[in-house]
Amino acid sequence: xxxxxxxxxxxEPVTVEVSEGGIVFPQSWAVEExxxxxxxxxxxxxxxxxxxMRVICHNAGTQFEYxxxxxxxxxxxxxxxxLGVAA
Length: 87
Description:
Layout: E1 8-13, E2 16-18, E3 24-26, E4 35-41, E5 54-57, E6 62-66, E7 69-75, E8 79-83
Antiparallel strand pairs: 1-4, 1-7, 2-3, 4-5, 5-8, 6-7
């Protein structure tokens, strides 16, 4: 189990994109990683961001590898939006 400190969020890049027509685009085609899945949140992160959510985050933070997974730790303020949330 991994848990970030304070106001940090651990993100994992979403690696496969599928178009509406069903075409699969590998992550290697992307200019930069922007869509992530939230893995863990620090104790001071707003309840608006929770593990499992898909978010858009600009290319910030620090990349690292943990148990064979490529992850990124960012400050919660670097998360720009949450995807798939009903209004």
